[in-house]
Specification:
The structure is a homodimer of 215-residue chains.
Chain A (H helix, E strand, L loop, with lengths): L1 E4 L4 H13 L4 E4 L10 H6 L7 E3 L5 E3 L1 H11 L10 H15 L8 H9 L5 H20 L15 H15 L8 H11 L2 H6 L15
Parallel strand pairs in A: 1-2
Antiparallel strand pairs in A: 1-3, 3-4
Helix pairs in contact in A: 1-3, 1-7, 4-7, 7-8
């Protein structure tokens, strides 16, 4: 399998964590988002959405969307389970994952910031304010729904933690204060000590830039 | 079960379709989003995200996020399957569902338009242009990934169709031309003739407004 990856992509980071939790090692190709490598015809044939991650299977099929990729990997390599087998617990974990993947991350990502700057002519302060607003209000709702034990939903990481750790990384990057969210900070600290989360961290990736321009 | 619903919410519309496909009838409570009913303390206790839909189970548990609710319903009432049982096909159907639920809908919904108007002081034309941009570019990517037969992924509706039909409704509402997307129009036409999709349509809901102000 080949993972199309970018070190600072929150969605790619999720897939890296999931693969590491499963102990799966895949070939990786790096798609430099800031250089626009996702917009080349060759990559668009892989993923018409022009986003990372994408996972190319050995038969040439290409899977897209981080949560769909994670569900696929969870079905094919079910140990350890990333979506809880109990339907109600799975629904709660999925709700946290989706609250991040749908209602925080897409509002705060690179393509949206580019559109706000280039098309809406908004200055960097307003773009930063917009980003912090959606991240902070999104995390506030998540804080109200998790009961760390010590991961979001029990003693092992699930898709909720897999989405939360990259979102916390992004919140810190964009200067969102995390003091109001003690439960999220507690989960984040546990994740930060877990080998799979450590291995998947943006700063540990081969394509990471030492001095990354903001944002 | 109680569904917290709003006629014009694209996410609630998805859950209505899923419940109708399963033949499940639930009690419904209507949360008038334009009046701000989602922001009341009583509703925030149900869903801290202040979004619809939410599904309250008989034991009082409240599920949120349309795709998590649909996966739950699919697990508890597996006939007919809404996520294909084949892992690869499921991944492809989920990718379409998530491309809509993550990368189109959250950028074009009410709370985002409100923020752009009230906080960023953008005028209605620019908000409408923003919305059409994300809807059109999102649909363009989906057009490249589906092969209608006659639904997105075979002879029966899946989560892909469940997300696509409401997104097409929303595209039409916001004046996004659908001519460039013949495959999407073909799926949309098939869905429009399916009883479950008909029953779930916004205009058929008890809380629908005859003359809805835009948007």
């Amino acid at each position: 399998m080949i993972l199309y990856d970018y070190w600072r992509s929150s969605a790619a980071y999720r897939v890296r964590i999931a693969l590491a939790l499963k102990g799966l090692v895949v070939e990786r190709r790096f798609v430099h988002l800031r250089d626009g490598a996702q917009k080349t015809p060759a990559y668009r044939r892989k993923n018409p959405q022009q986003l990372v991650p994408a996972l190319e299977l050995d038969d040439g099929s290409v899977l897209t969307q981080s949560l769909a990729i994670i569900d696929y990997v969870d079905a094919i390599h079910p140990d350890p389970r990333l979506a809880p087998s109990d339907a109600l617990l799975a629904a709660r974990a999925r709700a946290v994952a989706l609250a991040i993947a749908c209602d925080i991350h897409p509002l705060a990502n690179l393509r949206v910031a580019d559109f706000m700057r280039d098309e809406l002519k908004l200055d960097e302060d307003r773009i930063a304010g917009w980003r912090r607003h959606w991240i902070a209000s999104g995390l506030e709702a998540i804080e109200a729904t998790i009961e760390p034990a010590p991961f979001c939903f029990g003693s092992a990481p699930t898709i909720a933690d897999i989405c939360l750790a990259p979102q916390v990384f992004s919140a810190e990057r964009f200067g969102v204060p995390l003091e109001p969210f003690p439960k999220i900070r507690s989960v984040s600290a546990i994740c930060a000590a877990h080998p799979a989360f450590v291995a998947a961290h943006p700063f540990k990736q081969p394509d990471a830039e030492a001095t990354a321009p903001a944002p």
